[in-house]
Backbone:
């Protein structure tokens, strides 16, 4: 039984127990953020942050790279597949892709771009990427295109009923604060103050999204930053997670949840949901064998210690069974690990999803 069918059974059981749910209505999906959720925008940009060469995409039907930093599907893809089984939604395509035709426009779009962060100076080394202000500007452009296609009122309804997935924060540590010793941001802020600064800037982004019509958004946390093979290769000799980056994640995740609580109280509705992806990953990383993995500190594709040095390329070491690895490359999860993360987003307790999981959101929204 596929993961989506498991979600389908749980969702329908909830619907039957609490009233009829409109499970046949497609729900648009909008995606903002970084490489964890980019599904190909950077293919169309002059940037080194790209995943459009083999062996990326090795487990897709075409076995060709798609721009996703994965061996196959990434987190938005898995969510789209769940939506397709539940309510007939279609996968969203990158906003910069010519595949985003008028016919597909009402289904949503992916604005994410690898290398970006909450701050505009994050990922400067990657060149031409879609930083948050540009992602938001493209969202405004999307809304204008949609309105010209279906009318202002229908366009507003489509945006209001959409689910939004946001992945921000990890790069602000890996590719900014801890990028190299004595980085400008590390000289400007002690780590706790830097996290507070990130939250103040993130809050502005979320208020902008709300002003643009977003009414349901899941915010992925920073994840277990120090446990990425790239960081282990750089900071560890015994395979343990890098302490400074883990300390950053320990500060970021609870503050994200508190910020969400504060904004929702201000708005008078549970618009934003904090997903503690650090904790989700930690369960897998600390006990990979219980989840069917062989290793959690070594990338499937790479070179050097823990396959964590440099990029995943056609000349890299590549594992034979991607399902046995938590990490595909030096920073990004395999498709199978992404499926486990989505399972927690769908059904996780308030330890992982605050104030509610996605199954609850879908039931509540389908009843309205």
Residues:
């Amino acid at each position: 039984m596929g993961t989506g069918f498991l979600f389908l059974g749980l969702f329908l059981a909830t619907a039957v127990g609490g009233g009829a749910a409109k499970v046949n209505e497609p729900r648009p999906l909008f995606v903002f953020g970084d490489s964890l959720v980019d599904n190909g925008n950077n293919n169309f940009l002059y940037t080194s942050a790209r995943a459009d060469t083999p062996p990326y995409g090795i487990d897709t039907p075409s076995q060709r790279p798609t721009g996703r930093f994965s061996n196959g599907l990434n987190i938005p893809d898995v969510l789209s597949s769940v939506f397709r089984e539940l309510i007939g939604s279609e996968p969203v395509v990158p906003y910069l892709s010519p595949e985003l035709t008028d016919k597909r426009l009402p289904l949503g779009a992916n604005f994410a771009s690898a290398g970006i962060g909450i701050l505009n100076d994050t990922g400067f080394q990657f060149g031409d990427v879609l930083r948050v202000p540009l992602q938001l500007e493209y969202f405004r452009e999307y809304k204008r295109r949609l309105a010209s296609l279906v009318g202002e009122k229908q366009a507003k309804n489509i945006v209001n009923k959409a689910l939004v997935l946001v992945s921000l924060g990890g790069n602000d540590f890996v590719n900014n604060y801890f990028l190299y010793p004595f980085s400008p941001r590390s000289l400007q802020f002690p780590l706790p103050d830097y996290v507070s600064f990130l939250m103040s800037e993130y809050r502005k982004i979320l208020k902008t999204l709300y002003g643009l019509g977003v009414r349901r958004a899941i915010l992925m946390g920073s994840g277990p930053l120090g446990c990425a093979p790239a960081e282990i290769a750089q900071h560890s000799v015994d395979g343990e997670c890098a302490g400074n980056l883990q300390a950053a994640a320990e500060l970021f995740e609870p503050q994200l949840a508190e910020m969400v609580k504060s904004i929702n109280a201000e708005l008078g509705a549970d618009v934003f949901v904090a997903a503690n992806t650090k904790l989700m990953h930690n369960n897998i990383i600390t006990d990979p064998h219980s989840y069917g993995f062989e290793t959690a500190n070594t990338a499937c594709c790479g070179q050097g210690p823990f396959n964590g040095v440099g990029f995943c390329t056609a000349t890299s070491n590549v594992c034979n069974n991607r399902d046995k690895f938590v990490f595909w490359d030096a920073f990004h999860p395999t498709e199978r690990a992404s499926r486990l993360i989505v399972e927690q987003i769908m059904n996780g307790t308030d330890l992982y999803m605050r104030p509610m999981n996605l199954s609850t959101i879908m039931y509540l929204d389908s009843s309205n």
